């Protein structure tokens, strides 16, 4: 608790940017440090793991595992990437979305244009993966509706950055989890 914020930020960067984000989150949780460093994610994991023996299959852990596949000690990511990933997940927990909207958002981020994202969505025949509480089944939304819903998700992601940076917003987000530990901010 006595370590200054820049040092904590540096340690978080080391843990999450160098290909060990998933295992770092597990260790932080195991030793009770996740409650201090990332209280919303700690509360989410505690809630989702009630009655479960493993965190495999949880969207947050899968997002972190996939992030780890792309980076390593000699090829770290910029901290804005894992911060964006945490904001993305937070937005989905606070406002679950249609699985097709999530796919459209991810495709738009990956390809950079709406036309390419739509082309990807039209070609994609993979089985839908539904994460609870973050997503619900495919609705088959029309392109115009999908564009509007994807734009809305983008605004949710942007506003959920506050949960990572603003104490009052963080407290409001954690309140939804009655078993969450108290944190000092």
List keywords for this structure.
185 residues; mainly alpha; two-stranded parallel sheet; 64% helix; globular
What can you see in these coordinates?
This is tRNA nucleotidyltransferase/poly(A) polymerase RNA and SrmB- binding domain-containing protein. It holds the Pfam family PolyA_pol_RNAbd. Residues 2-44 form the tRNA nucleotidyltransferase/poly(A) polymerase RNA and SrmB- binding domain. By secondary structure, this protein is mainly α. The chain has a domain at 97-160. It is 64% helix and 2% strand. The protein is built from 10 helices and 2 strands. It has helices spanning 5-17, 21-30, 34-37, 39-48, 59-70, 79-94, 99-111, 114-123, 143-165, 167-174; strands at residues 97-98, 135-136. Strands 1-2 form a two-stranded parallel sheet. α7 packs across α8 (114-123), α7 (99-111) crosses α9 and α9 (143-165) packs across α10. It is globular, with a radius of gyration of 17 Å. The mean pLDDT is 88.
Q: Helices and strands in order, then pairings?
A:
Blueprint: H1 5-17, H2 21-30, H3 34-37, H4 39-48, H5 59-70, H6 79-94, E1 97-98, H7 99-111, H8 114-123, E2 135-136, H9 143-165, H10 167-174
Parallel strand pairs: 1-2
Helix pairs in contact: 2-5, 4-10, 5-6, 6-9, 7-8, 7-9, 9-10
Distance, first to last CA = 10 Å
- Percent of residues in helices: 55-70%
Strand content: under 5%
Sheet with the most strands: spatial strand order: 1-2
* Count of helix runs: 10
Q: Residue-averaged pLDDT, rounded?
A: 88
Order of helices and strands: HHHHHHEHHEHH
Radius of gyration: 17 Å
Give a quick account of the main beta sheet: strands, pairing sense, barrel closure. Answer: 2 strands, parallel
Strand tally: 2
Q: Which parts are unreliable, with pLDDT below 50 for 5 consecutive residues or more?
A: none
Global morphology: globular
What structural class should be given to the helix and strand makeup?
mainly alpha
């Amino acid at each position: 608790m006595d370590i200054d914020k820049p040092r904590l930020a540096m340690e978080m960067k080391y843990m999450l940017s160098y290909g060990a984000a998933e295992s770092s989150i597990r260790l932080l949780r195991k030793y009770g440090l996740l409650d201090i460093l990332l209280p919303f994610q700690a509360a989410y994991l505690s809630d989702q793991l009630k009655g479960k023996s493993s965190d495999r299959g949880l969207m947050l852990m899968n997002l972190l595992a996939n992030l780890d596949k792309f980076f390593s000690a000699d090829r770290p990511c910029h901290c804005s990437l894992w911060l964006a990933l945490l904001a993305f997940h937070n937005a989905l927990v606070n406002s679950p979305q249609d699985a097709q909207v999530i796919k459209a958002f991810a495709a738009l981020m990956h390809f950079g244009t709406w036309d390419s994202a739509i082309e990807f969505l039209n070609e994609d025949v993979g089985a839908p993966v539904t994460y609870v509480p973050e997503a619900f089944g495919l609705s088959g939304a029309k392109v115009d509706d999908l564009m509007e819903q994807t734009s809305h998700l983008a605004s949710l992601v942007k506003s959920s950055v506050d949960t990572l940076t603003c104490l009052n917003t963080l407290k409001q987000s954690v309140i939804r989890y009655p078993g969450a530990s108290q944190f000092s901010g």
